[in-house]
């Protein structure tokens, strides 16, 4: 028992900078037996592994392994990674400009960020990054891979990419840059305001309000027919920004609720009075790359019938991650709750199904079976179970989730064309889209 105490105390103290939690001190015999097993393995690795291994490496690996076994979104961030995350949510950071996840041991591109080295180099949603500067990604954690992709501005990195439909990986040389996330883009489409939100960082609510105010003035407030809010390929971001954007179009009612492990662990977020569009029609575009905060906005506006949701079924990430700072200046990203739409629907592993399904046309000469379907939350290993999974109530196969990109050529964007056409037909009565 003394050896277990030394090993485990060293592990916990190094990881958290604190004493052993009271729940462990007062734990059951089984808890101590499992911690004793960890202590035995830890000491054996320290004393007998072929190469000397630092405490830091072993502890971080143990923590990451523990969290990865829970779900795909819980993770540990060391001090550097935590600092990088804080910078990124403010909307400016250094790197290549790629939203990524880890799948089957490789880095998978969720979406390249517009006007960054990644997008200019031609990286696409669904690409796999299999090596960085000639070194395999397999075996790295996601955080390790991300750190390798970051570096001094103007320095170069060669990434090897595996793309579906291409037999062999190919290399791309990218030059790192300061990535300034322009999360909101807008333009006039006739008498309709078009606003695209690419992610939910701290700048989004202010950006959307400014875009709508500026374009309303340009078109003329009385002439504006409505707004198209484009959330396609938006991977999410900050919960408070998703709530704020939903609130901009709602006068009253619940926006979203979160429910945790305990029955009384429920938080509800409600709209305040004031509709940025003064009751004019709203269409929200989503697709298989729309996740998390995007799904909160789409679900809230759909349930309140404030907007017509168009496109294809969203990703299905309906879990809440809480960032918990640690004494070593790092942080724990821990899944602590599920999101629910105002009507009580869980987003998790199911997503938001559009009111009107609209698919982008297939590329010239392509057949339906040639176009890959977007992998969803339900496809991720160890994903948090959704309410509808395993009970016959439906789930990940109810409607297609497309992997199409937003066409660079505006003339080929069929989803946007149909959204604009729909605006002209919609009527809003008492803040709701009339049937």
UniProtKB/TrEMBL annotation:
GO terms for cellular component: outer membrane-bounded periplasmic space. GO terms for molecular function: endopeptidase activity; serine-type peptidase activity. Transmembrane segments: none annotated. Residues 366-380, 401-413 have a biased composition (Basic and acidic residues). The keyword Protease applies. CDD domains: cpPDZ_CPP-like, Peptidase_S41_CPP. Residues 350-413 are annotated as: Disordered. Keywords: Hydrolase, Protease, Serine protease, Signal. SUPFAM superfamilies: ClpP/crotonase (SSF52096), PDZ domain-like (SSF50156). One of its GO terms (biological process) is proteolysis. Residues 1-26 form the signal peptide. Residues 82-150 form the PDZ domain. Belongs to the peptidase S41A family. This is Peptidase S41. It comes from Zavarzinia aquatilis.
